[in-house]
Amino acid sequence: MIPVIAFGEALVDMLSSRLGDDVTDGPETFTPYAGGAPANVAVACTRLGVPSRFLGMVGDDRFGRFLTAEMASHGVDTSGVVTTREARTALAFVSRDADGERTFDFYRPPAADLLYRLEHLPTGVFAEPAIVHLCSNSLTEEAIAETTLALADIARRSGSLVSVDANLRHNLWPEGQIDIGRVTALLDRADLLKLSAEEVEALRGGHSVEAWLNQRFAAGVKLIVITDGGADVAVHRLNQRLAIAPPAVRAVDTTAGGDAFIGGLLAQLAEAEVTAETFAEWCDDTARLERAVDVACRCGAHAVTRPGAYAALPSKADLERLRGEAE
Question: What is the pTM of this model?
Answer without folding.
Answer: 0.93
